[in-house]
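Hi R.,

Here's the chain you asked about this morning:
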Amino acid sequence: FESVFGLSPALAEFARIPTMLMIVMPLTSSMFSLHRSVMISAHETVQVTITMILEVSCIAGIMVLCLAVTDWTGAIAAGVAMAGGRLIANTYSGVTSSRIRRRWKTEPVTD
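And the predicted structure, written out as tokens:
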């Protein structure tokens, strides 16, 4: 961070932990896209809505909890909240899309 963005050593150290927490975001975004495509193909769009509501609710809840219970800075709490909310939403959407794919194995797909 120091050489690329020109940050001071103290500011670079401050950015290190939130960046490490956010490293899971590209993977979870890709996985959620896969899960969402399965749900949409199965015409279960309500499940996509539930997943998004779950993610936003978890991010807000984890953020409030982190700020109320810990002495973490906002950036660290936000990183934990975003990663946690995305992982929880991906778990839900993964279970749902897995259920759909199992059903597809036994039933013919119709549009």
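DSSP finds five helices and no strands in the chain.

Let me know if you need anything else.
M.
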